[in-house]
Amino acid sequence: MRVVVGTINGLVKVVDVEKGAVAGKWGIQREEYELDAHCWGRELSEGRELLLARKDGSIVGLNVEEGLCVTRLWDYKDYLPENTAGDMSRVCGMEYDGTDVNGKLIVCTRNGSVLILDASSAGEEGEGEPVESLPILISSHSFEVKGGKHIEKMRKFDNVVAAGGKEFDLALRDATTLAKKWEARNVKDDFLQMRVPVHIKDLQFLGEPDKLVTCTAHHQVRVYDVRAQRRPVMDISNGEYPFNAITSVTQGKYSDATKYIVVASNTVGDMTSFDLRKAGVVAGGYKGHTGSVRSICRVGADEDSIASCGLDRYLIVHGASSRVIQKKIFLKQRLNFVEKLPDKPTQSNGVDVEGRSDGKQSPKNENREDADELDEEWQEMEVVQEIVSKKRKKKASSSGSAKDEKKSKRSRKASSSSSSKRS
Hints:
mainly beta; 41% strand; four-stranded antiparallel sheet; 423 residues; elongated
């Protein structure tokens, strides 16, 4: 089982969870290379492209299976409004749409600008460090975010795009035209007749485009059903610290548990599981983190485990149903996201471990054959253990005789001294 983690200073690491070690690393540690968003891109000859949005306004494409080399480098800043500057130009969500032949990339910034880019035109795959290129803009839209507000997260499911943020309640748009489909209403005023603030930090779809769950900076978990009403159908308040991330999990024998079991993490390292069937009753907690947890994802062959990471520099894998720590790995840098990585191909039906079916041998297999030949040569050589053993015996006998001589000298001296005293 392998996962990809990103750090807040721009590094990307591939971690082998079973071995508890880093299998690959890419990147340069710079403040402006902080990773803001990520998504899986186009299919490559080996594996899949990982797209990363950085703080400096660029999008990098990585081929994770081939040593984390850079495949493409995009620059989209010229398409943003002129008054966009600073943190408002940073990417808060990025999704790849591969339904078309060329593929499209949906990019959403904190100020509400949504860009639909032609994924095939942005940069070219090649060796070495590519030059920044300006992708072709298919269309641009806006979520109409006004002063003092910004978007924190954008996600896509099928043909629906959902977004939410600070004083910007949950909104659904069409993924092709970004036309308005549905907008949420805030909950009713509190007992003091004061407006309840809105600050969505993360959101997830619950298996279908009509059901969503969000977590807020005011320690709330809210469930929305688009077909039922605009206000949340469930509003859960837990603890006193802001939530950072949320995901749905699979527990036990229930294959559809992703529709009603969610796990949310906050800024002090607490991870809490909620059962939405029982009006949001707390099902349990996941221990191990000591700092803010930034990202959670489902991992494992049956997605029966969850991986989490954060500012305490630890990657922790828990059992989804048992909530027991299965692996805890220290990764040196503060972590920003974790994503499941497909396993490498195994040998089957005439295809070798490297995924080649053309009969050609990979360099790794050639090295193995050379090592086997050297082993055979060493086995055919004559054994010289008898000569070495004779030398060792001679040394042992000589050292033993020297010790005997010393003992005899000591006994003679002792006897001579005793006889002189008697006389």
